[in-house]
Each structure stands twice: as structure tokens, then as C-alpha cells.
Amino acid sequence: MKAFKMLAVLMLTFMIMAAPALAKDTIKIGAILAVTGPAAFLGAPEAKTLEMMVDEINKKGGIRGSKVELIIKDSGASPEKALSFAKQLIEEDKVLAIIGPSTSGETMKIKSVAEEGKTILISCAAAEVIVNPVAKYVFKTPQMDRDAVIKIFQQMKYMKLSKAGVLSSNTGFGKAGKEQIEKLAPEYGIQITANEVYDKAATDLTAEVTKVKASGAEAIINWSIEPAQAIVIKNARQLGFKGPIFQSHGFGNIKYVEAAGEAAEGVIFPAGRLLVVDILPKNHPQKAVLMKYKKDYESKYKEDASTFGGHAYDAMIILTRAIEKAGSTDKEAVRNAIENLKGVVGTGGVFTFSPQDHNGIDINAFSFEMITVKKGKFEILESSAKKGNSKKK
Amino acid sequence: MNIELLSQYLVAGITYGTIYAIVAIGFNIIYNATGIINFAQGEFVMLGGMIAVSLHAFMPLPAAILAAVLATMIIGALIEIIFIRWLISPSVLRMIIITIGISIFIREAALHVWGESVRALPYFTGTEVTVFSVGDVHISPQVLWVTGISAVMVMLLTFFFNYTLLGRQMRACSANRDAARLCGISAKNMVTLSFVLSAGIGAFAGCVVSPITYVQYDSGTGLAIKGFTVAILGGLGNSTAAIAAGMVLGILESFSVWVMPAAFKDVVSISILLLILFVRPSGIFGSVEASRLKEF
Questions:
Q1: What is the pLDDT of residues B213-248, one digit of tens each?
Q2: ipTM strictly over 0.95?
Q3: Are A361 and A348 in contact (CB under 8 A)?
């Protein structure tokens, strides 16, 4: 009995001694992601991606010899939850950096908390306001909504279309896209004939599409991330709308194509190259990174990799590189290192940061590809506007 | 505004209306037997759709739907037996809160089983783009399926509740549980039966509407809110009225899109619901006297 007690005391002592030693050696990285809830299709692959990467990093001995400890918090896409998690991660867990949140609304809610807490925030959300105006500690990896809209308008001009009917959902994503469309339309000579917002839980959109069709639109632009984006194209085709239908980069999930079936044929949308990695030319700078991510993710989780998980992948790569470059885990040093990163190849593009640019992707370089649906599969749009696109066929 | 556009809005309204109505019917059954609103009804709808989609990979569509309905009925029975049956004279409020808990539980379980991705059954006839066209008015065959199946369901239910012994026993339990028990009716069995029946109807509804609305682990909530609105609008417990109320609401919503920005669609439906609750709490088609006798 005595021996047991001794052993217990001994073990306890070891544990107490070991705990701070362990904490000193690890790099704590927080992540606030919408793993469940309405934006789960963003947050779930992002969380899985981070877990996969951290496993791999730790197996290889960590970053500069320090193991990485990942703390994932599920915000369920609620800005209030994101806010309290951000405070918790910064004040209690004292993380070096936070990856996420998944949505723009959440990111904007915690932007100031990260600034005050002097903690690096690398958002996986797309809205331009996250990095414009630039906040010292806030970065983001996804391409800008603005760039996606420009790509669509360029394509419309190329196809000689000038009248667009716009549909968007009542979420942060839908609202941000709608604003950019309204702002950029005059610049590209596009006339918006109808501009309708629908509920994110909409089950059928026949009436909305009827209205857009009656407005004389030559093309429909839909901006949402919910199942509604599959419903829109189905209803449009059922109502006999013959013109092209453009979607946002939120359409980049083959599940929506499967859901919309035949109606998805010919839909055009801008997206990251992950979707078409198999048919990218071999010498494309992103090919190797994309292939590796896709292969690792799909063999581990037995589900298709999405561009959304890629945003978290990019955030982690950027952070890893910055820590290596800074040569320390000091928040200021790492932050400065991110601003000086050049030519980091990620899934969403090639990142070159500067004190003025906290997104780092240039639309003219490697951001969006115009993609279309052919026989239920994603394909690079053959007859696309090549202006402002560095890749030559 | 020409007549064709008008008809197209009408068709859109009917599409909305039938979806709402078929969900509303499920609410009415449990209400008829227990006097409570089952807030997990939307989850039954989701489960039916999800299970059918999963099974459709292995078997033909009718078999998958049948199996999904049976599976959901078993789930409905289990839920009632585990969470509600053993309660000693539960109050209506307590049962309602339990159903809210069950709904959250099913939703989270579905998230773990199926993940967050969107699924759909194939169209029963034709494909996503098949339509019947009259001039410039287009209607999807699936809408006709939903309408037809709702109509048949209501007829069968009306017959069941009014002309069969079992159906009358269920209604007796709702009207006065103690009196029903004195007459030798097992109130507990009736409540279980009502959960089984409404789970089955919910699941069937989920299968029929899923080609139109798609199904996702959390799509039950959205459908349940509209279904609930329609059930109240028509008068709780009355399935024929639910169909009529569904049509009224659907068509009003559809025409609201025509005259107003589409963003106001839900404002219209919720305003109508509030108006009805203030002016005629028993519903458009409900009986004022009957609703006064109800506990809830």
C-alpha cells in the first residue's frame, strides 16, 4: 500500500514538473472555426485540414523543434461565440496566433479584440473589409469578393452581356458580394435589372427567379453559400431561363453540382484552382502544393477536398513560414515576418505580403480561375476572358 | 403585368404552399393525440429525407422511401418510449420542452452521421429541368407529386381520425385523457402511436420535398417553422385546413415577391401569423369553442 502511495506522489510530482516544461516548448495556435452550424461546410474542412497539418508538423518534430499545440473552438458561425472564444484564447490560453474565423461577420466582430490583444489573426473569410483598412495584426488568406466579381464582369463583357439579374442570400457572404456587384457594375458597363435578397433557409425560389427573368436579365448572378445556390439554378432552368448563370466562389463544392443535377450544366463561377488541379498544366506554380493537399486530405478523411479547407491550409503555411523566418515565437517578430513573406505558394494563390497588403494575393497573378460545370464535373472554362490572367493556353 | 407572369407567381405560391402544408400535417397528428406541439417534427422530415438518400444508393427509389419511412417511425417510437412514456402525468409545457431537446439532439446526431453536406433524392419523374409548360407558365412535375401526395395523406388521415376506432381513441385522449382512460383506452399507447404516425408522415414528406428543397442536417428547423406557422394558421389539429392555409400563405408570399423586394417575403408570412394569433387564435378554419377547451 505504501509503495502505491509513494508511486502516486512520485507520478504527481512528475506531472506537475512536466506540465510547465511542456507548455514552454510548445507553440500554441488557436483556431475559431464554424465546425457546426450554417457555415459548417466552411469550418468543418478547415478544422480537419488544421488537425491534419499539425499532426504532420509534430510528426516531423515541430516548427524549429517546438511542437505545435492546436486549440480549435467551434463557433457555430455565431459572432458572439467567436468573440468570447477570441478573448479566451488570447487572455487564458495566451496563443501566438488565431486562425479563422470561417465567416466574415465573425472576423469583423473579433478584429478589434485581436488588435488590442496584440495577437496575430489569420482569417479564413473573404470580405475585403477584413484587411481594408489594414489592421496591424489581422491578415486573411481567401481571395477577395471584389476579385471574384471582377472576374465575372470580365467574363460577361467577353460574352457581350450587359444586363444582369442579381440574387443574393441574407448572410454576411451574400451581402458582401451584393455590395461589390453594385459598386463595380457601372465600371464594367453592366446594368443591374433586378437585385433581390432571399432568406438563407429558402426552400424554393421560383417567385424570385420569375421576377429576375421578367426584368429582362440576360444573365443571372447568384451570390450565396447555402443549398439555395443549387435551388436558384434549378428554378431558373425550370422557368425556361436560357441565359448563362454565374455563381460566386461559394459554389466550389461538387455537392452542389450533384444536388442541382442537370440544372448545374453550364454554370460559370470563379474559384481557386484546387477544383481543377487534375487538369492544371504541370508547370503551374501551384500544381505541386494543390496536389499534395488534395491527396493528403482525401486519403485521410475519405471526402473531397474543398477550396475552403484550403484557406486554413494557407493560413497554417503562412504562419509556419513566418515562425521559421522570425526564428522565434515572439508575437511581434512573427507578425513582422508575415509582412515580409514573399512568394509563398498556397492553395488559394501565391502570397506576397506587405505592410499595406495583408491579403497578399493579386488578382492578376494567381487567384481565381473561371470554372464551369460539364457533365457533372468542374472544368476550366475554355472560352474565358484572358485579360488580367497570367496563364497562357 | 401579364396573365402569364401572374400565373407563374401563382405556381410558385402553390409550390411553397404544398411544401409548408405537407410538413404542417405532421404537427397536427401529435397535437390531435396529446395536445402538444412536437418541435422535433422538422427533424423527422430531415431524417426521412436523409435516410432515403443514403438508402437510395443500394435500392430503387420506392423501396428506399419505404425503408426510410419505416426507420423514422421506429426512431419516433424509440424517442417517445425513452423520453416521454415514463413521465408520470407530464404537463404540456414539460413535454414541449422535451421535444425541443429531442430536436437539438437529432440535429446534432445527424451532423455526426451525415456531415454537413447537401443531399437530394432524384426527381420522381423526369429530371431537375423537366417542366410541364402551358404557354410561358412552367411547373415542375415534383410539385404535382407533392400536391397529390398531400391530398391523399389528408384524405387517409381524415378517414383514420373520424371513422376508425383507433383514430377516435387517439382523439379521445387529446380531448380528455382521464375520461379516455376510464373508458379503457391506453393513453400511453396512443401517444406512442401518434409519435410513430407523425414520424412516418414527416419522413414521407421529407422524401417527397427533398428533390425540391434539398436536405441537410439542419434543414428540419427551417421547414418546421413554416410548417408550424401553417398549422396554426389553419387551426391546430385540422389537416385539411393545413393544406388550405399552406396555399394561402404560399401564394401570399409569392405575390409579395412581385410587389416588394424579395427580402420582405418572410416579413409577410410572420405578420400574417401574428395577425392570426391576435385576431383569431384558433386559426382561420379552427373552431373558437373547441380551442377554448384545449389546454394549449
A1: 899 888 888 888 889 889 988 888 888 889 899 999
A2: no
A3: yes
